[in-house]
Amino acid sequence: MNHATIVRSATVSILLLLLALLVAAEKPALAAPDTLNVPASPAGNLNVVIQGDTLSNGQRAHPGRVYRLYRDSVYYFNATINVNFPLWIIADPGTHRPPVIAPAIRGDNSSPQGFLNIFSNTKTLVVRNLYLTGVRPDQNLIGYVNCMNYSSDSTNSTYSGCVFEGWGGAIEVNSGNYNKFLITDCVFRNLMHPSSWFKGEAFLSGGGITTDSVVMVNNTMFCINSYAKASVDYTLYSRFEHNTVFLNCVNPLNDFVMTNSVYKNNIFYGTLGNAQENAEIQQYYFENSISPSSTFSFDSLNTAPSHIPVAESARHITVQNNSVYWPAKLKTFWQSALMDTLTPPVFLNVRTAGMFSNKTAYPNFFLANNDTTNDPGFPTAVLGQIDSLIKFATVIRLGTSTGYLWYYNPNGHLFAPVWPLPENLAYSNTTMQHGGTDGFALGDLNWFPTQKAAWLLTGISTAEQLPQGYSLAQNYPNPFNPTTAIQFTLPKAAQVRLTVYNVLGQEVATLVNGNLTAGIHSVNFDGSRLASGVYLYKIAAGDFVSTRKMVLLK
Question: What's the CATH code of the domain at 179?
Answer without folding.
Answer: 2.160.20
